[in-house]
Amino acid sequence: MKNDIYTMLNDADINLEQYEKEDFNDIERKNLKAKFRKSINSKKSYKRNIAVATAVTLVLTVGILGGNADVYATRVSNIIGRDIGSLLGIQRNLDGYKTVVNKAVTDKGITVKLNEVILDGNQLIVSSNISSNEKLEGGRSWMPFFTVYVNGKKASNAADGSGKVVDDYTTEEVMTYHLDKVDLSGDLNIKILCKSMLLDDKEKNGTWSFEFKTNGDQLKVDTREMALNNKFTLENGKEYTLSKYTDNALGQKIYASTSAANSKTKSAYDIVLKGNDDLGNKISFYMNYDTENETLFRTEKIDGGINKNAKTLTLTPYAAKYPEKSGRMDGEYKKAGDKFTIDLSKLK
């Protein structure tokens, strides 16, 4: 099956009582469920991510054939996942940036295994797999509801990712959690908690909790950036101001601030920034997430990133309207603004 679907742990226990009041609300769960289904129907490649309301994670090779839940738990705990860099299609060595997790938790016959994590600015990239003795037929896949806490404070406000069903019993994913309103510098205590997950429309309740430490400074040291000032406005009246371009070992990003959409319509749009570099190579940035005040675009093809010899990027914004109901993204991408150029020599 090949369906495109969209976390150094210590053994300390998590005090669940401190998180219960900050668990997923009904709106977050509804949005996540709707966006997750859209990603399953997507025809885009494995590396193409679609933003969702808050979710999970990766890809490893595993074969689990028959047996009870205890057997599944034992086998999954011994799985060694593929390097997170290879899963992201990144050719650079990421050993200096990643934290190896390699821990499995089993509850209610479902095993979640977190493999590796990387903290990139305000994003936590996590690899994991989910397995049970329930057969995944017809493209069925697990959809967990994970929440990330940083130094005891709820930090995740959105997530996106890619994954696939690797056999009849296992879902593999890599997810990026978007962290908000927390200090991500220096040594950090990260806690990831899941108390429910869906298989089709059936909810499975349990507790899958993890703790680990990481550091938010290393990748920041190697990140170059430059200011931007390019604007475009969608048909729904929402204005985007591209404010910053960054480059590091994980790829390239374009940050944008946004204004409120026109009150006449609540239509949502997917946006891509497409064009080429001065060497003639095609370049595309997809919309990684789109919140009320901020939007992030990432390079569509992150294998190797932007050509190191490129001096400029020339891009044009295109937008397509999301369907009103869950389903395929069939809307046509139309030009949404003027062409603009990024001078890469200004990166510092």
From TrEMBL:
This is DUF4179 domain-containing protein. It comes from the Bacteria. Pfam families: DUF4179, DUF5643. Residues 46-132 form the DUF4179 domain. Keywords: Membrane, Transmembrane, Transmembrane helix. The chain crosses the membrane at residues 50-69. Residues 225-343 form the DUF5643 domain. Signal peptide: none annotated. It comes from Clostridium liquoris. InterPro entries: DUF4179, DUF5643.
